[in-house]
Amino acid sequence: MQTSMAEAIKNSWLEKREFPRIKANCPVRYQLDSDDTWYEGTLIDYSAMGVQMICDDLIMKGTKVKIEVMPGSMKNIPAIKAEGVIIRHEIDENHHFHIGCQFSKIVRSLA
Hints:
The protein is mainly beta.
């Protein structure tokens, strides 16, 4: 389900964070600092400070990663390339990992 920009702005007012999360659902690629392989996940939400994604692999807290958000035709989601560090990981009932990544550097917009 795609969130419209109006809904995203409305929801951001409801959240009391300094940098509100905006719901999203699009492909994301990530690369661990210690590996040359790119892995795929799904973006759940993003903010100016980072992203939350779902993936099949456990990524430990403190791991440095490269992230590429690949929204395709979804114009309300920014296409970005960034570097960051994993700050949270949880497993859900379907055995997928919810990973929180805090940006350390936005490299460039892919758009």
